[in-house]
Amino acid sequence: MPGKAIRVRGTVQGVGFRPFIWHLARQCGLKGGVWNDEQGVMIHAWGSSAQLQYFIRQIPLQLPPLANILVLETTELTTRSEHNSFEIIASQQHAFAQTMITADAATCPECLAEINDPHNRRYQYPFTNCTHCGPRLSIIKAIPYDRCNTSMAEFPMCPACQAEYDAPDNRRFHAQANCCSDCGPEIWLEDARLQNISSTDPIIQAALLLQQGQIIAIKGLGGFHLACDANNEMAVTRLRQGKKRYAKPFALMAKNSQQVKEYAQLGNIEQQALTDKQAPIIILAAQGKKQAHSVAPAEDKLGFMLPYTPLHYLLLQHLSSPLVMTSGNLSDEPQCTDNQQARQKLAGLADYFLMHNREIVNRLDDSVLRHLGDKIQVLRRARGFSPEALPLPKGFNKQLQILAMGGELKNSFCLLKDGMAIVSQHIGDLENVAAQQDYRQQIKRYQQLFDFNADIIAVDLHPGYLSTQYGEQLAQEQSISLLRVQHHHAHIAACIAEHGLAIDTPAVLAAVFDGSGMGLKGELWGGEFMLADYVTCQRLGHLQKVPMPGGVQAIREPWRNAYAQLAHNFDYTAISKEFADLDIIRLLETKPLSILATMIENKLNSPLSSSCGRWFDAFAALLGICPEQIAFEGQAAIMLESLAASEFIRQQDNAYDYAIESSHNICVLNFRTLLLAVLQDLQQQRNKAVIAARIHHTLISASVALLLKLSAQTQTNTIVLSGGVFQNKLLLESITQQLQLYGKAVLSPQKYPVNDGGIALGQALIAASIQVI
Amino acid sequence: LSHGSGGRAMAQLIASIFVKHLDNELLRQGNDQALFNVEAGRMVMSTDSHVITPLFFPGGDIGSLAIHGTVNDVVMSGAKPLYLSAGFILEEGYPLAELEKIVISMAAAAKQAGTAVITGDTKVVERGKGDGVFINTCGIGVVPAGVNISGNRAQAGDAIILSGSIGDHGVAIMSSRENLQFATTIISDSASLHNLVADMLDVTKDIHCLRDPTRGGLATSLNELAAQSAVGMVIEEQKIPIKSAVRAACEILGLDPLYVANEGKLVCICPAEHAASILTTMQQNPLGKNAAIIGKVISDDNHFVQMNTAFGGQRIVDWLAGEQLPRIC
Ligand SMILES: [Fe+3]
Ligand SMILES: [Mg+2]
Ligand SMILES: [Zn+2]
Ligand SMILES: [Zn+2]
């Protein structure tokens, strides 16, 4: 009887893989065994050639939901079987593979059926889970992934749960978070004075309170949410005031896709992503306007997710409208994870707390996705995705271990080990104390979970990034070599890495548009046209450089960019006379312009920047979109995009004029004529939606024209579009489509954020490639 | 003023200005060094070179600044300042009348600080090789018995006291240098803090740290102290005094007042139980009338200085790394 040794690598531990193999092998009539080892899973199987062949072919086809196979190798076994049947063999020691730490997953259909079945012992139990679903990264403290190393350690299993855990043919075989109402975590409801509200069913009670317009802090899987009835304007307004978050849209949770459709357009691809095991927030085009206006006051989009834990399912069952489910924090702070911390920080904000006693070990924000063409694009990558690994493209050295520190805002970091890139969950803005503490703690935790020791630390070129400073500190303390990576190069490398471009792929052309990143010679870049591979990066063009009077203040106050554009391109006195009646000129006349002029002239905290983000701010301000001050990052650009949407298709052929200039072999996009045309259209009181759409088309045409010119010049037909500005869907989709019409292959980030959440991956790959060369 | 050629006549001319205004017994000895007796105990010594544009600014000039800067460095140890030296580097062609104004201002500042310039030196460099006037001063002082003030002594639980409003000097210098027309003229806070420190030590000798937040501002001083003492700090944005004119100017310029230089302020870190009485005493001194307890020392392995913002958030107040280029992408 022939035998096969089958080596499986990937996400194959702690996901019900061995029971699955056990079932399949028995179905196939094979003898032998399956066990975990440090490389993943090993199977020895004996049977007829046909049986073996069928078995091996079925493995990838019938995989359990959370398993993911990266390598499946078979070799002949020369020994004869000593087995009478097929068995799961206990691991000798805990030499577990790194791939065992999986992402948290939404409640599986089987578990859902159980909590809805009055005869099941887990009926309405809010912490029901199995090997196919439930908490993972959110509860793990150390490896190996055993209950004792998770926050389930303090809940010893009852005999019934233990029996499931021990039975190879059970869905809960070695399910580390297995529990039931007899032995597992419990929930309770507290009021704002921290009094427990005695209630037979805290969930029903919470639902009732939500219906009455109360705000409840709900402890979930990766952190606290603040919830209220999404249709109750008073409640939503009160939540906004309490949170001190006045404009940024709130995420919503609906009970099912059907309910989502009452509020937003839900296409097939979006619906699939919505109901996937990652259960992310999907950004959808709003329709119907049933939700309270304050949910998304400045946008025509809504972010929806579905329940992803039994607790959420049980709660939503009792509600007729969706819930606002915004992160449980003040303004833009990271969400709370700890009961005591939540009580302190959310007091005065939440009327009630729906608490539980399972500790959240690793904070995981909700992931945010959107639909793009026929694909899905991740904008914030956290719960459900991290710490999933990306196999490195061909040609990279698999021995090196690299720690890439990431950016400053929307930070994530990245570990490179054994040919895998592991990007952390979204950490946040590092200037924030809680995010900074979390950042350092998560770097330590990941190093421990993945048994990682850095050979190289990669940081951004910007010396002021707190990630750069911490990377420098670690490198110095541990005598690790440090590599500084240019910001926009990292954006490009991240994109080509996730698309699997091999290390020796010819250089690609790229447009990288963002707020700003440190360029060479201390310049601030942000509207760049580049030719790059993993190792090298050459700047071929950029948006016109314009001063940012007041530095960081120019990021907060769009009027400064409007003024800078006007003063840089024209004689400001003359142009302000000619257009004296425009709102923007009137506003500027109230500002200390002579001081700003001096600042620009004397180069006083007024760095020149080719930033595309500031370009959008300038035009938004010209059109009267939050010219004074933005309430959240990117607000002006987001609102300009929203304004342009209704006229976007109609104005397709109506781009304004622009110029491509060339100096020192670098092409510069000059928008002087665009500025003038916009001022004239404003003076003639043309429809602002039309103007906004035409502004978009001008940037699109100019970018496409320049990319085509550079493509011909460099003989490069692959074009990357990346950087935070490409969160603008009009921009990304149009440039992509137009370039495709010219036969170009266009790549933009999908699995990793197009914004700075993606740059750690790029930094890591660049560091790895330099070491290979 | 001419370089090289002047010889004896020129040297005498300059010397006469110094002698006339800085006049004191030790300087009059006329030696290449000043000779004096010292008390038994611990002495401190500090030196600082002063380079500033413009040389005259609202609230002071390079002369008074050269005294205040060094006196403050000496007194931040708790010492009583004794004597100063002054070294001048003058650019050829710099008007003698201007130099005299600077020396007069120095003399007044030294006298006010209860100290004297007892030795000095002058060099003249070619035109274009200097910026009018550079002044180096060195100071010595005596630390009273029982006083033990050092940047590494901050302990978790200590209070952080700031002696007054921040940002005045930096903004005054910048507006005057760049000729920025703000609604209100902002005046430098340049001053010697010897009396204020003496008053504070009269309350208790149990003060852990003193520092004058000069270059790099309050943020830099706090980070230095946190690193030296291996502690963390929490400060309250709303408790930090900032004059409204300074705040407005900083907003226009896009500067964070926490990083703007001061020349007449100090940060005091002391055990919490002394904080209230030290504060009351400080507030009775004109140089400490706006003093406030702005935060506390905590234990933190990361040695973060964190600030509870007016908005209700918590942000890291970090070291200034290179130029202040925006970090926001
Ligand atoms: Fe960026
Ligand atoms: Mg000094
Ligand atoms: Zn399940
Ligand atoms: Zn149980």
Automatic annotation (TrEMBL), chain A:
It catalyses: an acyl phosphate + H2O = a carboxylate + phosphate + H(+); C-terminal L-cysteinyl-[HypE protein] + carbamoyl phosphate + ATP + H2O = C-terminal S-carboxamide-L-cysteinyl-[HypE protein] + AMP + phosphate + diphosphate + H(+). It is an enzyme of class 6 (ligase). Belongs to the carbamoyltransferase HypF family. GO terms for biological process: protein maturation. Involved in the maturation of [NiFe] hydrogenases. Along with HypE, it catalyzes the synthesis of the CN ligands of the active site iron of [NiFe]-hydrogenases. HypF functions as a carbamoyl transferase using carbamoylphosphate as a substrate and transferring the carboxamido moiety in an ATP-dependent reaction to the thiolate of the C-terminal cysteine of HypE yielding a protein-S-carboxamide. GO terms for molecular function: acylphosphatase activity; carboxyl- or carbamoyltransferase activity; double-stranded RNA binding; ligase activity; zinc ion binding. The keyword Metal-binding applies. PANTHER family: CARBAMOYLTRANSFERASE, CARBAMOYLTRANSFERASE HYPF. Its EC number is 6.2.-.-. Keywords: Hydrolase, Ligase, Metal-binding, Transferase, Zinc, Zinc-finger. NCBIfam families: hypF (TIGR00143). This is Carbamoyltransferase HypF. The active site is at R18, N36. Residues 200-384 form the YrdC-like domain. Pathway: Protein modification; [NiFe] hydrogenase maturation. The keyword Kinase does not apply. Residues 3-90 form the Acylphosphatase-like domain.
